[in-house]
Amino acid sequence: MSCIIQHSTRGLRGDNDMNSKILTSMTGLSLLLLASQVLAQDANNRNSAEQQPVGQAPEIQQEQPEIQAIPDIGGVLTPKGRLVIEPEIQYSHASVNRLTFRGIEILSTFLIGVFEAEDADRDTMTASVTGRLGVTDRLELELKVPYVYRDDTLYATVPDAQGFSTDRSLTGNGLGDIEIAAHYQMNRGQDGWPYFIGNLRYKSTTGEGPFDIRRDADGIERELATGSGFHSIEPSLTLLFPSDPAVYFANFGYLYNMKDDIDEPVGDLFVGEVDPGDAVRVSFGMAYSINERSSFTLGYKNDFINKTKTRFTDDDGNSVSTQSSTLNVGSLLLGWSYQLSQDTSVNLGLELGVTDDAPDTMLTLRIPFGMNVF
Length: 374
Prior knowledge:
By secondary structure, this protein is mainly beta. The chain has one helix at 27-50, and strands at residues 82-107, 110-134, 139-158, 164-175, 179-185, 195-203, 232-243, 246-257, 260-266, 269-275, 279-289, 294-305, 309-313, 319-323, 327-339, 345-353, 361-366, 369-372.
C-alpha cells in the first residue's frame, strides 16, 4: 500500500567559521523533525484503511503522495495553496576549555615558560519566524527571519609571579541573516523508490558580521556578531524512504560561502580579501511512529568545514596570507513530535555535539500551524 505523506514541519541554518560557526550546526535539527510529522500522519492513514468493512477492497489512491519541504534540508512539501507559519525558539551552548604552554620543553617533566588557561562559555538564543508556501504540488518557497542574542564569557589565567588573570563578557543582539529557499519534489516515490527532494538555500548578510561590529584601538571586539558577514548558497538533496512504521531519511549538501574584499583596518592590520571555508554537509537517520499523534526521531549529522583564507597587510606594508584550521562539526540528533490538530503540531529537537568543534547542546522548540490561502 502506498503511504500518503501529509503535512510536516521543519526548521534550520549553516554558516562559516569566521563567526564562530554560530549557525553551522543548526540544520541537523530541521531534518530531525521532518520524519516525526510524516510518521504520525501515516499512522492515521493506516488506521483508517484497517477500519473498512470486511470484503470491501481499499480505495485506489489516484493522487501521488504530497511531499513537503523542511527548512535547510527538504522533506515533505507543503501542498499547493497552503501557507505554513512556524515560530521557533532555539538555544545553543558551547563551552571551550584550553590549556596552552608558552615556553621551552627540555624534558617531558621539565618545562621553562608559562601555562595559560582559557575558559569560554558561549550562549546563543535565536527567535525566528519561518513562512512556507506551496506554489504547486511539487514546488515550495520559504522565507526565514531570525533575531539573534549572543552572550560570551571569556576567562583566562596566566600563572606568573603576579598571578595574572582576566575576565571578559561580551554580548550582541539584533537581526540575523535572513534566508530564502526553494524545494522541489523530483519523483513520485513509486515502485520502491525513495522520494528525492532538491533544495536550494540562500543566506543573506542582514545580520552584523564579524567585520561590522565595534572594536577598540587594538582591534579587540567590543560586541558579538549576529550574522556570518558573507553571502552563502547551499544546494542539497534529500532522500525519504517510508518503511512502515518507520521513515528513513538522508541529506547531502554543499555550503558555498562567497569571498569578499573587506578592506578595513583591524587593530594594527589592514584586512583585505577574506574567503570563508565552504562546507560539505551530511545528515541521516530514522523516525518511528509511536501512535497517530506522537513520534520520535534519531539521527546524526556532520559538517566538514574547510579553511578560511585571509589576506592582510602588516605594519611594514607586507602582504601576508593566513588560513585557519578545518572544522569537523558532528552532532547526535534527537527529536519528539506531537500533533495537536490537523493544522498544528509541537516539535522539540535536541542536538548533542560529539566532536570538539560542535556546540555542546542545542535545543529547538517549534510550533508550526497551517492555513489554506488559495
